[in-house]
Amino acid sequence: MQARSYAMIGAADEAMTALVAAQRAAEADVSDDLLDSVGGEFSFGEERRLLSAAATHLALSQLDQAEHAASQAIDLFTAIPTADRWTPGEHGARIDLIVARTLGGDLDSAHDALVPVLALPSEQRTGRLTGRLHRR
């Protein structure tokens, strides 16, 4: 999230440093008894790290890296049982994938990625998701 914040203000070096730090922290696999027991919004698995990485790369116009991170996040989200999955995060990654592909000129692949997002029931089309798409 720090990397994403830096990217949004154009601080590319700081954003990339934060992404590397996040990757190292994820690889260290350090647990926190309090946060692990609370879970929910406070859990931050690899899928959420990749979601943030995709948004960071997108904000920095690093389209290939954004597409790669978003695709990996989607793969991890969809491996989680639907009842346990954070679907706004999954669809956020899908939107980042769509934007990266569109900006990169790959409209056919962007269209393919858009289909599941358009299939969302209206109650799941939150302002946060639509804002993510409109912001680009």
Q: Short summary of the structure?
A:
This protein has 136 residues and is mostly helical. The protein contains 8 helices and no strands.
What would you report as the Rg, rounded to the nearest angstrom?
A: 15 Å
* Class based on secondary structure composition and strand pairing: mainly alpha
Q: How many strand units?
A: 0
Classify the fold: give the CATH topology: Serine Threonine Protein Phosphatase 5, Tetratricopeptide repeat
The second-level CATH architecture is: Alpha Horseshoe
First and last CA, distance: 18 Å
Q: Biggest β-sheet, characterized? A: none
* Percent in helix: over 70%
The CATH class is identified as: Mainly Alpha
Number of domains: 1
* Strand content bin: under 5%
Average pLDDT confidence is 86
What does the overall shape look like?
Answer: globular
Number of helices: 8
Unreliable spans:
none
How are helices and strands ordered from N to C?
Answer: HHHHHHHH
Explain what the structure shows:
This protein is mainly alpha-helical and 136 residues long. Helices cover 72% and strands 0% of the residues. It has a single domain (2-134), classed as Alpha Horseshoe (Serine Threonine Protein Phosphatase 5, Tetratricopeptide repeat). It has 8 helices and no strands. Helix 6 (87-103) packs antiparallel against helix 7. The relative contact order is 0.11.
